[in-house]
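Summary for the steering committee. One of the milestones for this cycle was to obtain a three-dimensional model of the protein with uridine-5'-diphosphate bound, which we needed before selecting residues for the alanine scan. The sequence and ligand used are listed below.
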Amino acid sequence: VLSSPVKITPIRGAAASVASETVSIVIPVYNEAANLPALWQRLSSVLAGCKHTWEVVFVDDGSSDGSLAILQEVARGQEGRVRVVELARNFGQHSAILAGFRNSSGDIVVTLDADLQNPPEEIPRLLDAIDAGNDVVGGWREERQDQAYRRFASRLHNRLTSLIVGVPMHDYGCMLRAYRRHIVDTVVECDEKAAFVPALANSFAKRVTEIRVGHEARASGKSKYNLFRLAHLSLNLLTG
Ligand code: UDP
Ligand code: MG
């Protein structure tokens, strides 16, 4: 006598990426007016050669330097492929990324910074690593162009994050990353107000990898992180 049949739920996200899949690029922006023209020039030429259909979601995180107007001007010429999410005030990089996730629809979501520290030219390599069957691909800045105290703090932070999440990675702080849709949706479902996005994403991902990526000095302006903000980010990691 057969017992009731076992219900088998298909694993989401196991399929390899195909050209018909869509990609969302999510970029948090806080007072980056001086960097946006060069960012858009480099990003748009990378996307012009991309095999996927794409959209770009810029999130203006309460800028006061005219960034929003520049982003809206870029979006006007792009027939819906570029959208701007406008936050009421400055909520921080990771909250801005979460807002971008909520307003993205791609099968794959790539995040990068607006200050050109993350070269947009690396995006195809991230997509190739997703193609290879990964749920999450993290960038690893081997030659990091930041101050010594930031590199030191990051080493501690990476150890701590690897321990908490249980997924060891060299560079949890690199925001040049790619995620499959089911990871993005699960992160959004968490409804965290102060998440540390790479850690949260890795806690749900089965297939995670990292690839070495280039890193440049900030094109213009200063880092938005001081010691207080870095400590705040670590607290979010511990409490999230
Ligand atoms: N950013 C943001 N909100 C903030 C701080 C930063 O959207 O409150 C954005 C910023 O505009 C940039 C990215 O997050 O696109 C990374 O910020 P930053 O370059 O200051 O960080 P660092 O590279 O020093 O870690
Ligand atoms: Mg930066």
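Key point for the committee: The first helix runs from residue 36 to 48.
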